[in-house]
Design brief:
Two copies of one chain form a homodimer.
Chain A: E1 2-6, E2 16-19, H1 26-36, E3 46-49, H2 57-62, E4 68-72, E5 83-88, H3 94-97, H4 99-103, H5 112-126, E6 134-142, E7 147-152, H6 159-165, H7 172-177, H8 207-215, E8 216-224, E9 231-237, H9 238-246, E10 253-259, H10 272-279, E11 287-295, H11 297-305, H12 307-317, H13 319-323, E12 342-350, E13 357-360, H14 368-375, E14 378-385, E15 391-398, E16 401-402, E17 405-406, H15 424-432, E18 441-445, E19 448-455, E20 479-485, H16 501-505, E21 511-515, H17 523-528
Parallel strand pairs in A: 1-4, 6-12, 18-20
Antiparallel strand pairs in A: 1-2, 3-4, 6-7, 7-11, 8-9, 8-11, 9-10, 12-13, 14-15, 14-21, 15-20, 16-17, 18-19
Helix pairs in contact in A: 5-8, 5-12
């Protein structure tokens, strides 16, 4: 089909005809134009594209179905009337496979912990309603064909939900208000819970895709929802997209495979590890497995060599989900947390090592939150509320220089600089600056760390210009703190930064109130602040 | 069309049939199923969706064209064979209209200068090959229906290029290697030029869309390419996308209007300002106009109230494009720059004011680069090269405390804190820390400021641990500097940050060499460093 506008004489009526071009060569097409527009054989005309390229034998072959042409007296004739040209502008498939590359980064920081966290977020969200134990596993299978697998025993996805998962920017909010809502899950904001640990951290319709394609070039989603006996499987891969583009196929058309749990008859020989994953399905009530392959070699290197570092980072991200609202208190009273346990396991299987290494993030005891919590000699809790319903639970902790010993913990993520030349002045300065240039507050959104936003301090915990006789100035450098925000505060799509936390907290209408903690609160402190 | 798999007896052959459902009600459809799959009337069966919902009268009405159903003995029967289900996962239109909201932000910073800069980038790129003056205009029309217009006299776009512009993530690199390359413009990397001022700063296939939809909810692109007598026009708007989604139309199908320059017969009554824009087209050789409407009210407020601030920021972004490689030297030798002048004009037309206010960014004399350049008493130039071909031109400037006067400029973007209580110690500290906590180097990528990456210092300009007798320590706080990188360094999609500059520059294989500047170079300085 080609649409031709006859603009030779500028007549606005009957100037447009859509011609069938099936099997026509250029010569036949010209004859058709002659007939359709009733052009005497001795009259000259020219056919041009909307870019004013004259259509000849060669150009005619290139024309795509749905093209628009002008019929003119000469190539440069003015358009007497405006001409509508139909176009398509479906986003390029790089939308899915490349976005992550540019989104997950922080110069000098390894992006992988953030993208793994994005997948863990989805698992936390999926297991939110589990009545029993919540299991989230990150398996690094580097012994054969390298794969990163994130598994959870959450509610799983129906085939419709899996389809929606693949749609870029289809967030849970969009789903509710649009024709996409056919997955029957209109979004309902969660009930308030202490410190906003509501597991509502799967959000924008971009995280899973960004994260998976930041880690590798192929992602296989395998999921069984509670409501159905079937497992649903969907593969998105760069290779597949490229193939479809080359063959001029619809790149966003795909196939979900619906099958019996444990049925791996579709798996090819070199993907034996997939057979193992699929064998485990039998008997599971519901689950989701994200299987990422074609892993970037640099990532494999990092994940192996810096295993301890990035698992500690993940333990930091989910500290309060793993340990409960009070965090990893070493001398915790028994049975203080009523919510079902969340296990986040990480295992690494490698060619060189005989047995896999593994860690339950709950057993990580050197993440910075654990260090802060257990070295604080006093804590002060407060609450901030904004006019738009934003709620922030805050904890300020105090780490003194005690009996000749520094109790302010060192950040395990920061490689300590070599000690400078000793001199007394320096030493005093260091002692007064336990915190150094670090900001006081780390910030958790819906209970999950937002790693690249920190808040240095508030007016009421800042060293005043005039030093007071009863509070030595070095006190002010001995704080650590945590802020827990609810979802009235916005984070960016990669959950690396808050968009408006500091501005909202420092707004004059934001109210701070102390929260009495019977056992340790000293009201006289509040009066001073 | 509905595809039905007969899975009652698990037979792998002949189990799939695609049935025409035109005008069939559920009853007729059941009869068809009976016939097609040869089911005796006394035999029970059930039809379910792939989500295992039983298809009844109501569900049948909801089924979409292309749906897949199972024919089973009972609702919960296992799938004896795996079943393929065809799906579509075209990105949601929020990909185009919402991305910008999350991408352009920096907490506490106004995002608008960055998104306006993105549009100016496109204009700089479009005017790169102009032989005459390069004109870029930002017009803020707030007197009637609010509009932000960015106009340039660059090469314009053909209708095919305009179509490609609308395709998300279709970067110039992708175009070259794919079926999209039909715009006939394979990407060729520009020739090296001093300080990489190559105008090659329109890059990722996301900037224009992100920026436009960050500013408003509707964008009209109007462009005339050099090669054609016609103007091409395309409107993308949130309203239009929503309408198409509600009507279940293809959201990525649109219309380019091709017309004679000056022809505004398609413009409705309430858009008189568009008629003015279109009237200006006549006689122009080529141009592009980006017309953004449905502007967010907060943006209008900011653009009006902080006009001086954000135009200064833009002048800072494009300092070296506006003023040439040496920047805005007040006592510049005449005719030192051979390249054609780039004019970036900003005008604001408001209800309250009678005449529009306006500024040519070249006349902004209080951007921080201008202040640095004109207050430096000495400069030192260097070049860094990385193993991958990265080239960085660097300038280090020196701003002494001279004759009792601070020559280190104050950053006009930072609101000065109230002076602290005087005490001698403080004053000395301030004098030694002219630069304060500021990093030394601002970083320009292809000549354009990347605002949120700065480099604090390099080893060779850092205050050493042991102070040397011949260089007082306060010297080291009296530097400012600029780095000009070529495109071997990556920036993120919003051009707010470098992705790898600092790591690459501090890599041990990166070579720094001094660049002799005959008139002022003092080699003895280099020896010290």
């Amino acid at each position: 089909m080609i649409t031709v506008y006859d603009l030779r004489f500028g007549k606005p009526q009957d100037s447009k005809k859509t011609l069938q071009t099936n099997d026509l060569d250029f010569h036949k097409f010209l004859q058709l134009v002659h007939m359709e527009f009733v052009i005497p054989l001795n009259q000259k005309f020219v056919l041009v594209t909307t870019d004013r390229t004259v259509v000849d034998y060669g150009k005619f072959k290139e024309l795509q179905n749905g093209s628009t042409l002008y019929l003119l007296q000469n190539q440069h004739q003015d358009l007497a009337v405006a001409v509508e040209e139909s176009i398509h502008f479906v986003p390029h498939y790089n939308t899915l496979i490349e976005s992550g590359t540019f989104e997950y980064f922080a110069e000098g920081q390894e992006a992988l912990p953030c993208s793994l966290a994005e997948l863990v977020d989805n698992s936390l969200s999926a297991t939110a309603k589990n009545t029993g134990v919540r299991m989230i596993e990150i398996r690094l299978m580097f012994d054969k064909k390298p794969a990163v697998i994130v598994l959870d025993n959450g509610c799983g996805m129906t085939s419709k939900q899996l389809n929606n998962w693949a749609v870029y920017r289809l967030s849970k909010f969009t789903r509710e208000n649009s024709t996409f809502k056919s997955d029957q899950q209109g979004y309902v904001s969660p009930e308030p819970v202490p410190r906003s640990l509501n597991s509502d951290i799967s959000y924008f319709g971009v995280g899973g895709k960004h994260a998976a394609f930041q880690i590798g070039e192929s992602v296989r989603m395998i999921s069984k929802p509670i409501s159905s006996p079937d497992v649903h499987e969907l593969v998105l891969s760069k290779e597949e997209f490229q193939k479809k583009e080359q063959n001029k196929e619809d790149v966003y058309k795909g196939t979900i495979l619906n099958r019996k749990p444990g049925d791996f008859s579709h798996i090819k020989g070199n993907e034996a590890f997939l057979q193992d994953i699929i064998r485990e399905e039998t008997g599971k009530h519901s689950f989701t497995a994200v299987v990422i392959t074609a892993i970037c070699p640099e990532h494999i290197k990092y994940l192996k060599q810096d295993f301890k570092e990035w698992t500690r980072k993940l333990a930091h991200f989910y500290h309060y989900y793993i340990h409960g609202v009070d965090g990893n208190l070493q001398n915790k009273p028994q049975g203080s947390n009523g919510s079902p346990a969340i296990n986040i396991l990480v295992t690494l299987r490698d060619k060189s090592s005989k047995s896999p290494i593994g860690v339950n993030l709950r057993n990580v005891n050197d993440d910075i939150q654990t260090l802060y919590i257990n070295s604080a000699v006093d804590t002060f809790e407060f609450k901030a509320t904004t006019q738009e319903g934003g709620i922030v639970d805050g904890v300020l902790r105090y780490h003194p220089f005690l009996y000749d010993k520094e109790t302010y913990p060192k950040d395990p993520n920061i490689i300590q600089a070599p000690p400078e030349d000793d001199n007394d002045e320096n030493e005093a300065a260091v002692m007064n600056q336990a915190r150094g240039k670090r900001d006081i507050f780390e910030c958790f959104w819906n209970g999950r760390l937002i790693p690249y936003t920190t808040i240095s301090e508030f007016d009421w915990c800042r060293q005043p210009y005039k030093t007071t006789p009863d509070l030595p100035p070095e006190c002010y450098s001995r704080f650590s703190g945590v802020l827990f925000t609810n979802d009235k505060f916005q984070v960016n799509a990669t959950k690396q930064k808050f968009m408006d936390l500091e501005i909202k907290l420092k707004h004059r209408d934001t109210l701070f109130i102390p929260v009495p903690k019977v056992q340790i609160l000293d009201y006289s402190l509040w009066d001073k602040w």
